[in-house]
Write a structure and sequence with these properties.
The protein is α/β, with parallel strands linked by helices and 287 residues long. It has 8 helices and 10 strands. Helices cover 29% and strands 18% of the residues.
Length: 287
């Protein structure tokens, strides 16, 4: 069951709590930030398209607290004004003031979705990813800047680009993302976000899954399973599954591997391979 199936509603919020999961939506004006959030929250009475021009949209920070069935943590979606827009109030200063007032301590997890309209002029310096991410980093306290960034390509309403042109623009966007160590959504086919609410939540869930492993990978559980591809028995392989709970051993270097109790919110990694492939060695070296 994904986030889309568990989503039960949202409301405006101002303060980020230590237990919250925060997703910042960043990008130039016209990149589809508000449109993405409207689709994410399934606002049936609001129809916002990705605009053609660079006319600025919001000039303030808008945060929405989302609640889910069976989840202890809320997800706070933070819609930010455009940077590098040369208008008043300055987007960077607006974000800085909001963060200084509402996001002063580390939360459970934090990530960023960077929106980019593929119909943008690729030669316009004000639309470059590096400029907008640099502005956000200047506005945010250093210890609170999200380290995980996913780039979401969008397309202006009514824009008509050939498949070849889309692939070319997606390749240019991926190069920018690689420089920033960000991950491009749908990098394999270059297709922009299609506007479906369930697709929006899949994008958020993918971001948070990566953020969890980046920050708390040592708090999960690793499991090796017996080889099921060996044609003959061998003493080299493990005949029984070996369970290693890194969470349980974190404060005890002499602790012996033991079977962990897998909780609902845990991430479980199955290490699979033929006998002699080094499954156990991988677990031991990583833990």
């Amino acid at each position: 069951m994904g986030l889309f199936d568990r989503f039960r509603g949202s409301k405006k919020t101002t303060t980020v709590l230590p237990t919250d999961i925060v997703v910042f939506i960043v990008g130039p004006s016209g990149s589809g930030k508000s449109w993405f959030i409207n689709r994410l929250l399934q606002c049936a009475n609001v129809d916002v398209q990705v605009c053609r021009g660079q006319k600025p949209g919001i000039t303030e920070v808008h945060a929405e607290r989302c609640r889910f069935d069976g989840m202890q943590n809320d997800i706070v979606i933070v819609d930010t004004p455009s940077f590098c827009a040369n208008i008043e109030p300055d987007g960077e200063e607006v974000v800085r003031e909001w963060i200084d007032s509402n996001y002063t301590k580390r939360c459970k997890l934090a990530g960023m979705l960077y929106m980019h309209n593929l119909a943008f002029d690729p030669d316009d310096a004000n639309l470059r990813m590096s400029n907008h991410l640099s502005a956000f980093r200047r506005a945010c306290r250093r210890n609170l800047v999200p380290s995980i960034i996913h780039v979401v390509p969008t397309l202006s309403y009514g824009a008509r680009l050939s498949d070849e042109r889309l692939r070319t623009l997606s390749a240019l966007l991926k190069r920018q993302a690689d420089v920033e160590r960000a991950r491009l959504h749908n990098a394999s086919d270059g297709k922009p976000f299609d506007g479906k609410p369930e697709a929006a939540w899949d994008i958020v869930q993918g971001l948070l899954s990566r953020s969890h492993f980046d920050r708390e990978g040592s708090a999960g559980s690793s499991v090796t399973v017996p080889s099921s591809w060996s044609s003959s028995s061998s003493s080299r392989g493990s005949e029984k599954a070996m369970y290693v709970s890194l969470k349980h051993q974190a404060n005890d270097g002499n602790a012996q591997p033991k079977k962990p109790e897998v909780a609902e919110n845990d991430y479980v990694i199955f290490v699979i391979g033929p006998t002699g492939a080094g499954k156990t060695r991988t677990i031991v070296q990583e833990s």
